[in-house]
Amino acid sequence: MKNNLKDFLPAELKKLNEMAGQPFRAAQLSGWMYKKYADSFSAMKNLPSPLIKTLSSKYEINNLEPAEKQCSKDGTVKYLFRLSDGNFIESVMIPSGERRTVCISSQVGCKFACKFCASGRMGFARNLRPGEMTDQAIHFLRSGGKITNYVFMGMGEPLDNFDNTIKAVMIMNDPAALDIGARRITISTCGFVPGIKKLCGVDLQINLSVSLHAANDKLRDELVPINRRYPIKELIKECKHYLSGRNRLLTFEYILINGVNMSAEDARALAGLANSVRAKVNVIPYSSTDSEDFRAPSKDEIKHFTGLLERAGVNVTERLSKGSDISAACGQLAGRRTR
């Protein structure tokens, strides 16, 4: 199997034997892949034919293959991509005012089985390679739309695929590659504490988001099973460690589920956690998946819960459900496909 050149950092391309004595060729190669979005060696017109022949004999430029595209009436666009091994992943572009956010998948399926998540019900197949992650961003950029934010919040737990995820972030951030500002990139975790510990050693001003969904261990053990290994106290401690020395804000993602995690007691506990780390809380009304174990809250219930948080001094935003008419929740399309 050939190595995918999109798995290499621009600096690594310069070190390839094929570039010996011609480091400028690596810059040309990066420019074709990341500035002009070339999807084949044949498109790289300013590279000499002998070099193209040598590169193509040893390497490939592996591009995601769109298997399905869905467009919502609210502007959300979702792609189902077929990977080279026949597996499927999803990426979603979500518009909100002037923001256009791309959700990037990091794994095929997921190990962590959050109770409300379609990806978790798929089980875990494999980690994505860096190029398979960056190519999700490239696909939307190639389509011509301006993307303002990138979130590793698609299928999978990005911090469980730590090395490949961080390398993908570095390629996205590299001026010689996609040149995306680190502060426009967010990594979302379900609370994988070992990954947060490792993230503390990464010198990038990326944002961290924690999919909390419950503010006490008993309920979070049920909704987000990884909490049984890394309970809330340990999670908050590591979040504080990550924030120390960084001028960044933490976000708690909190899915609002009717009759499950929306009591006044839940709001008080959530406010206490948020205020302890100066976290913003992003509430997300539950979006129905193929399982109807839970119900979405009404607008009045959402307003009441967010009001309790605001009165407790919490910075609250509401992420409106997007793409409900196209099964935009992570894993809904891929979970219906078989190889």
Structural class: alpha/beta
N-to-C SSE series?
A: EHHHEEEEEEHEHEHEHEHHEHEHE
Strands ordered across the widest β-sheet: 3-4-5-6-9-10-11-12-13-14
Mass-distribution shape: elongated
Biggest sheet features: 10 strands, mixed
| CATH class type of the largest domain | Alpha Beta
Could you please describe the fold and organization of this structure?
There is one protein chain. The protein has helices at residues 10-14, 23-34, 49-58, 118-122, 130-142, 162-173, 193-199, 217-223, 232-243, 264-277, 299-311; strands at residues 3-4, 59-60, 65-71, 77-82, 88-96, 99-103, 107-109, 124-127, 149-152, 185-189, 207-211, 250-256, 280-285, 316-318. By secondary structure, it is an alpha/beta fold. It folds into two domains: 3-60, DNA polymerase, domain 1 (Orthogonal Bundle), CATH 1.10.150; 65-336, TIM Barrel (Alpha-Beta Barrel), CATH 3.20.20.70. Strand 3 and strand 4 (77-82) form a beta hairpin. The two termini are 20 Å apart. The mean pLDDT is 91.
